[in-house]
Amino acid sequence: MEIDPNVGSVEGSSELGPKTLDNSSSIGKGKVLEKGKRLQKRILSFSQIVDHKGDSIGKCIENVLLKWGIDKVFTITVDNATANTTAIGFMIRKLNSWQDGGAVLGGKYLHVRFCAHILNLIASDGLKDLHDSIVAIRNAVKYVKSSPSRLDRFKKSCCT
């Protein structure tokens, strides 16, 4: 399977799926921009990998690129895990060793992190300071909702 020679660019992303028994899975997705046409999203691969080590992830991504005949890559979007940073380093070395250098701009912009993952880390860190207050509010709500008479008294006190 190869991508149309009229392709202008390909953007890739890699996601690790849940571990099933002793197997790990990786989903390779791609956004393909064909010259003069609209952006198309495709699942390029759904592969099993032996572990979550960076080199294993990098080899899996490399195999997907080779299978699809993709020889130039601008970005690969992954979450902020250490193994993914290692995988991107592996991919930069591999792509730059390909004939004509497969990493656009030498791989300077190859590693793009999922912004949702980064925002989640920021929000989680900020909520740590509020943890005790959040627990107290949750407990108060549970207490009020645990009895119909308490809920009625609460509604009456709020509505008057």
What does this structure look like?
This protein has helices at residues 54-68, 82-97, 115-128, 131-145, 148-159; strands spanning 7-16, 24-34, 39-49, 76-78, 111-113. With 160 residues, the protein is α/β, with parallel strands linked by helices. The chain has two domains: 7-121, Nucleotidyltransferase, domain 5 (2-Layer Sandwich); 135-159, no CATH class. It has a five-stranded mixed sheet. β4 (76-78), α2 (82-97) and β5 (111-113) form a beta-alpha-beta unit. The protein is elongated, with a radius of gyration of 24 Å. The protein starts with 6 loop residues before the first strand and ends with a helix.
Straight-line N-to-C gap? 70 Å
Number of helices: 5
Name of the CATH architecture of the largest domain: 2-Layer Sandwich
Strand content: 15-25%
What order do the strands of the largest sheet run in, or round the barrel if closed?
Answer: 3-2-1-4-5
Helicity range: 40-55%
Radius of gyration (Å)? 24 Å
CATH-defined fold name of the largest domain = Nucleotidyltransferase, domain 5
CATH class of the largest domain: Alpha Beta
Q: Quick check: average pLDDT?
A: 75
Give the SSE string. Answer: EEEHEHEHHH
Biggest beta sheet summary: 5 strands, mixed
Give the CA-based shape: elongated
Tally of domains:
2
Structural class: alpha/beta
Multimeric state of these chains?
single chain
Q: Unreliable segments (pLDDT under 50, ≥5 consecutive)?
A: 1-9, 15-23
Number of strands: 5
Region (Disordered): 1-23
InterPro entries: RNaseH-like_sf, ZnF_BED_domain_contain
